[in-house]
Amino acid sequence: MKEENNKEYIPNTIEIEERMFNIFASIIILTLSIIGLYNNSFPIIIPGRRGRGINLMLHSEPLWIFCIVLLCAILFLLSTVADHMDKRDNERKYAQFANLMKKLMWLFLVISLLAEWFIFKKSTPLW
User: Is 11 a member of any domain?
Assistant: First the structure.
């Protein structure tokens, strides 16, 4: 006979500071991406361990691809807030969604940079 689990499900809670930070960061990322699309330029600064890292200004098509990275970042941040608000037993689904967003962010970041460097070549170095 199967034993039933009589424990009542307790939804996870996320601190208000983390939720507010994620909402605020999402608003900032959305604002910066809208400004970048409006101006058709967005600075990318990825510091390197040794040396200068990646410093360039994206324009046109690579910028649109990079905006997918920013959209994934917004969805990643807001999934934490949605997970807190959702009282159903589906934390695993939110964790899977967050992992998918992380993978998509890396994928589209690489695609954006490769498109900039090898296809469009429109970027201007920041320094």
Answer: no
Indicate the number of domains in the chain. 1
Residue 30 domain-assigned? Answer: yes
53-102 pLDDT, tens per residue?
778 888 888 899 999 999 999 999 998 888 777 777 777 888 899 999 99
CA distance 102 to 27: 18
- For residue 2, pLDDT over 70 is answered with no
Look-up of token digits 């690579």 = 62
The answer to whether residue 2 is domain-embedded is no
**What domain range is 91 assigned to?**
16-41+55-125
